[in-house]
Amino acid sequence: MIGLPVVAYASAAQTCALQSRAAGNRKETKIYLRVGQCAAFAVTGSLCLLCGVFREALLGSVVTDRGVTEMAVPFLYLMFVLTLIRIPYQVFLTYLQGSGWERKVVLYTAVGTLLAGGAVLGASRRWGLTGIYSVMIGETAILAWIYGKWIRRKVE
Terminal CA-to-CA distance of the chain, rounded, Å? Predict the structure, then answer.
């Protein structure tokens, strides 16, 4: 649920940035990508904050066992981190997909996912669910960095 604004703002930023790019306005393209990320961070960050403050009620609406609820809190926070890290990744990914780099994006995403899948198996055996989330966060951050570098090169 907290990830929905990420996709919505990424799509909106992609539309505006691609229209700007097609008009030849590179500076405006960067602005749209940055504004899309900032808006997504503001909305998603607020949702994460609210869910964190009301975590007992939130988790209690799904699970009635108090012990399970207490164990779920650290994973809820890991989900917040993963969702916030997905913002630049999603904005960059959707922009690149719309600007003719689909094959390269699919290739990098597929390779990243396969490598992360192997890392998840190892991390889950060693650190359990925390290891799985850590690998997912790492994969998303690395792909966001790669896609961001492509955009900087492409837009400048």
Answer: 35
